């Protein structure tokens, strides 16, 4: 059975490191220029992006650069310069949406692979053949494509790699071709500055043109989230995706998501893939529950296994975001002897330890606290809160920049989390 690549988002250097530590085979990232996540791209400049690419390559992980916006005529010299810099940096591939940019990239950097962005909406074997003949190595399938169609496409165009989104935010518009925030805010979604207008509540009115009477159509007091798509989650379909044998890369969306999201989702898909490949079985429900610890808009398996017209459960009309069941308490530092607080921690608190892929730890106990394993999970109890400089605190809260000591060393980028209760309004 073919082992597909697991591709994770790297919105900044920290998230790139986390994606790698939690099991990604490749990551995608970019500087702000000509990327459809230009705000996350601002986390990188060319110098730090080069550092990140080198960091990934040293660990056997590929980096794909996003150049997938739709440039205007006056931007073409800047695109050309950008491609030249990506060539110097040594990225493994460029993700591109338009034929013109593909042609220029092949001219400037023929040694770098071209991946066709999902924004190009490739849906059938004619599209795949045409892009292949134009020099595209991999096509990121439109989110509206079904697995049955991908099987047929692979039969007809076997020499093109296929990448699919398996997890992350879904767009109300067809494969992301939207101008809603351009109309309302002057922020062009197809140039990476989407304002996420589809996530807002809207109030609808019905007007009788003959009488001028207008009726407010109310479903919820604060408006209705009529365009708010649920998040994609295909973790339960890992067996049939792998059985199909036509998908070369499984992609997780979320360059603007939190580091915890990157860790949890990457590890869940890594474990599900590895478990199924090694045993022919997948406890996918377990990994689905793990994913529910992250913030989401509700989860749907969208269109890979069902046609759009066959379902009506892909939208969340009640809220734009649902809190996960767990709150990140802290992230372990590179030294491994302390953590940076991300929530609030008091003496006596017990937190669960979320380890990177393949990390091993041992039980320990001292005056600072105790680490132990129970029912296959690792836990940490704090007897006292002590900063790295030796100061004892009554509590530590998010925003405190003092590293807090651990009872014993943990792997860098380990997450500490605890279950929390949220009120209905998400506070």
UniProtKB/TrEMBL annotation:
<dbReference type="InterPro" id="IPR051454">
    <property type="entry name" value="RNA/ubiquinone_mod_enzymes"/>
</dbReference>
<dbReference type="InterPro" id="IPR001539">
    <property type="entry name" value="Peptidase_U32"/>
</dbReference>
<keyword id="KW-0378">Hydrolase</keyword>
<dbReference type="GO" id="GO:0006508">
    <property type="term" value="P:proteolysis"/>
</dbReference>
<comment type="similarity">
    <text>Belongs to the peptidase U32 family.</text>
</comment>
<dbReference type="InterPro" id="IPR011060">
    <property type="entry name" value="RibuloseP-bd_barrel"/>
</dbReference>
<dbReference type="Pfam" id="PF01136">
    <property type="entry name" value="Peptidase_U32"/>
</dbReference>
<dbReference type="GO" id="GO:0008233">
    <property type="term" value="F:peptidase activity"/>
</dbReference>
<keyword id="KW-0645">Protease</keyword>
<protein>
    <submittedName>
        <fullName>Protease</fullName>
    </submittedName>
</protein>
């Amino acid at each position: 059975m073919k082992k597909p690549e697991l591709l994770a988002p790297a919105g900044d250097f920290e998230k790139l490191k986390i994606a790698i530590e939690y099991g990604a085979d490749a990551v995608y990232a970019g500087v702000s220029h000509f990327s459809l996540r230009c705000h996350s791209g601002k986390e990188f400049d060319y110098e730090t992006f080069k550092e990140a690419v080198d960091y990934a390559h040293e660990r056997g992980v590929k980096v794909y650069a996003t150049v997938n916006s739709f440039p205007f005529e006056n931007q073409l010299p800047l695109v050309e310069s950008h491609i030249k810099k990506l060539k110097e940096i040594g990225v493994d591939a460029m993700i591109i949406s338009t034929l013109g940019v593909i042609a220029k990239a092949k001219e400037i950097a023929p040694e770098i692979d071209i991946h066709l962005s999902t924004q190009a909406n490739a849906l059938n074997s004619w599209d795949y053949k045409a892009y292949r003949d134009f020099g595209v190595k991999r096509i990121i399938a439109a989110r509206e494509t079904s697995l049955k169609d991908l099987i047929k496409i692979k039969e007809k165009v076997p020499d093109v790699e296929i990448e699919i989104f398996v997890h992350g935010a879904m767009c109300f518009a067809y494969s992301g071709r939207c101008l809603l925030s351009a109309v309302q805010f002057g922020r062009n979604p197809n140039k990476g500055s989407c304002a996420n207008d589809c996530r807002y509540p809207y109030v609808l009115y019905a007007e009788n043109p003959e009488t001028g009477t207008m009726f407010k159509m109310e479903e919820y007091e604060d408006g209705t989230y009529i365009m708010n798509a649920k998040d994609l989650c295909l973790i339960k379909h890992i067996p049939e995706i792998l059985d199909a044998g036509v998908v070369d890369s499984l992609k997780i969306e979320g360059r603007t998501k939190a580091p915890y999201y990157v860790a949890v989702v990457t590890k869940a898909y890594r474990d599900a893939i590895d478990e199924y490949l090694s045993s022919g079985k997948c406890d996918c429900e377990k990994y689905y529950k793990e994913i529910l610890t992250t913030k989401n808009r509700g989860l749907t398996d969208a269109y890979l296994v069902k046609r759009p017209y066959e379902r009506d459960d892909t939208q969340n009309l009640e809220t734009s975001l649902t809190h996960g069941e767990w709150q990140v308490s802290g992230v372990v530092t590179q030294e491994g002897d302390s953590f940076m607080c991300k929530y609030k921690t008091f003496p006596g608190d017990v937190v669960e330890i979320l380890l990177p892929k393949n990390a091993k730890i041992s039980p320990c106990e001292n005056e600072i606290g105790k680490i132990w394993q129970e029912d296959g999970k690792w836990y940490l109890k704090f007897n006292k809160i002590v900063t790295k400089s030796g100061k004892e605190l009554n509590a530590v809260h998010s925003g405190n920049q003092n590293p807090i000591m651990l009872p014993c060393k943990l792997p860098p980028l380990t997450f500490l989390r605890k279950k929390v209760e949220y009120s209905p309004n998400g506070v």
